[in-house]
């Protein structure tokens, strides 16, 4: 099975058939898809200027989408390296029990669904790398009460998400499943109350 970098080479290779280049970009999302496969694909298509169902997009647009994905992947891989180093140091210092960020990180290792968007058409508008930088920054500071990506205040608790965890606070502005560790207990409780009010 091809890795991310070899798939990226196929996307860039002008000798490859256009269908293969598009297919290779889609396959890259099996290795790294911050919003989930479908939402990340929709995001890349809209940012690069071709339709999700376009079977023969402009090769330059495919490469532009790949470049955005690669930049975001670099941001996430750097975070994972730092995370692993921190855990090694904590274990060396006798801290064996992982915290809530560690529990969340275990579910997102590799970058799949780190900013999960259950509705593939609702996702942040900005560049993927910037979204991940904001999310990482929120994970490294004290919990807050708003969405770490868009500063949205309308968080609603949703159930039966097509992701793990399958429940949690979703930002109604940008669509991400907000990682629980970045929110205060009061913000999580308010999101739950919002869910109860909406279903009443």
TrEMBL record:
This is Uncharacterized protein.
